[in-house]
């Protein structure tokens, strides 16, 4: 477990949210991928923000109430997300998790998004490491 790196547990099969994406499409992507948030990237896969379920809920409530139409992700994303390196130790990352910390971390290499790490992925690795936890097939 000590030698496990972020690159060993990251998910790279989830497509990030692109700048300018309508919020309704963002919600579909979050629900389809069973994640609580995703990085927002520019055309070069540079992380420019992060959008969470909570961001979407609030923005959709406000736009629905005011009949403003579908907002875009740029209007609601958090603009200074925490990113991590693929070389970071999973143990170091796990020790930094806590209340108020992100649940999803964008993994960046040479200023480009290459994947995400979720708390679920870390829990699954702990289970595989022999903590006596049976891992469901979807993890």
Automatic annotation (TrEMBL):
Keyword list (alphabetical) reads: CBS domain
The answer to whether UniProt assigns keyword Glycoprotein to this entry is no
Q: List the PROSITE patterns.
A: CBS (PS51371)
Under InterPro entries, the record lists:
CBS_bac, CBS_dom, CBS_dom_sf, Diverse_CBS-Domain
Please name the CDD domains in this protein's record. CBS_pair_bac
Record's signal peptide: none
Top-level taxonomic group = Bacteria
Q: What's one Pfam family here?
A: CBS
- The segment(s) forming the CBS domain are 10-68, 77-135
Q: Which SUPFAM superfamilies match?
A: CBS-domain pair
Output the Gene3D superfamilies linked to this UniProt entry.
CBS-domain (3.10.580.10)
Kindly provide the name given to this protein in its UniProt entry: CBS domain-containing protein
Q: Which organism is it from?
A: Marinobacter salarius
């Amino acid at each position: 477990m000590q030698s496990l790196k972020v690159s060993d547990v990251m998910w790279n099969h989830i497509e990030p949210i692109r700048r300018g994406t309508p919020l309704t499409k963002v919600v579909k992507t979050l629900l389809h991928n069973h994640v609580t948030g995703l990085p927002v990237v520019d055309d070069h896969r540079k992380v420019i923000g992060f959008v969470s379920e909570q961001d979407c809920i609030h923005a959709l409530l406000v736009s629905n109430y005011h009949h403003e139409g579908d907002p875009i992700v740029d209007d609601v994303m958090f603009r200074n997300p925490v990113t991590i390196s693929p070389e970071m130790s999973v143990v170091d990352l796990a020790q930094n998790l806590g209340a108020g910390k992100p649940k999803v971390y964008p993994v960046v290499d040479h200023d480009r998004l290459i994947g995400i790490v979720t708390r679920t992925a870390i829990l699954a690795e702990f289970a595989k490491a022999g903590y006596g936890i049976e891992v469901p097939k979807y993890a």
